[in-house]
Amino acid sequence: MKIHLHVNGKKQGPFELEEVNSQIAEGVLLPGEVSAWYKGCEDWMPLEMVPGIEIPAGMNVPPVKKGGASSAEKGGDSTGGLIPYKNPSALIAYYLGIFGLFPLFGLVFSIPAFILGIVGLYKRSQNPVIKGSVHAWIGIVLGFIATTYNGLLAIGVIIAISQNRF
């Protein structure tokens, strides 16, 4: 079985089960501080919950509650991913994209929404525990639409003013 690890904010792997067990035995990996994912599991989980992981006797591992660890304990988002507070770039991109649709705010909000959406996606790819990819994509799409819309609106206003020749 191939296991992907999330250690100190960085994704690593895939590793063979035997290799991970060897790193645990050598003290390189500390089960209470590492999240893991393998093909067939739904989400990242504490390393010690992966089937086949062997924890040496005497190694101090924090207890896992019945029903598995909560998303906050797994290093995830306690809101279930609905509000990506650990990915502020994605969250801000989302709101700026919405506000950018209003002609009054225009390009002031829509361009940063597009840029922050891309930053949010990059942060999500670096740390899958933080979530926020949907908010980032909404920020990117709305930022693009609002930038185009507001740009065309500004061009239209400039043409209308120039035609009147005050």
Automatic annotation (TrEMBL):
Lineage top rank: taxon: Bacteria
UniProtKB keywords: Membrane, Transmembrane, Transmembrane helix
Regions that span the bilayer: 92-122, 134-161
Domain GYF: from-to ranges: 4-52
Descriptive protein name: GYF domain-containing protein
Origin organism lineage: Bacteria, Pseudomonadati, Planctomycetota, Planctomycetia, Planctomycetales
